[in-house]
User: Fold non-specific serine/threonine protein kinase from Oryza sativa subsp. japonica.
Amino acid sequence: MMGALQQQSNGHGHGVLLLAEAGYAEVDPTGRYGRFNEILGKGSSKIVYRGFDEWRGVEVAWNQVRLRDVVRGGGELERFYGEVHLLAALRHRGIVRLHAYWVDAPRRALNFVTELFVSGTLRQYRERHRRVSAAAVRRWCAQILDGLAYLHAHSPPIIHRDLKCDNIFVNGNQGEVKIGDLGLAAFRRGGGHARCVGTPEFMAPEVYDESYDELADVYSFGMCVLEMVTLDYPYSECSNPIQIYKRVISV
Assistant:
């Protein structure tokens, strides 16, 4: 595993020829991973490209965060660093696998390479395949719960804090789902957490009260199941977070 402070250096001459020959836009500092210009996903601060692992001969997801963009975004930089460091320590069949990470100082970018999920997120997958049996949904649920159990079994437990179908990734040809996007994840403190974070539609009542533990993830899982079955976000009838909050605390 490469350290987070390792710097990128493509160089000239042979390095340029290597990029041109392989069709890469850039390579990592070891030369193991190459990035193509094909964009698989894009957020406010992060772009996910298709990449290739030459050592194993498999395609990967090359995640690139432009540091100048996240610095302007306040706590975003801290969130991305937190996700990378946490992923680096996790090894489980139900959690997205991190292969490498490094800082590209000249480009002012944080790069991290993860597994590639050919079918996107569970929300995207469910929208494409609207007719799914209850047995298939149960298999997805079992895998998600397996990943959650792994996170919660840590000492102290790890709380995902933003579990939703947008943050669960799918390899559709294998029926495989894994939990990802751990940018808001945190270790449980002794007295419970006191920070209200997450996606309103999936947040447990105690999260709004700013006093919660890993059981908040179990509530979010229930909302994920509701989304899988109905093909819609929970509380889709609400037009803003305030309305969602009122519905949640009134249950």
Notes: The CA atoms of residues 133 and 229 lie 10 Å apart. The first strand starts at residue 26 and ends at 27.
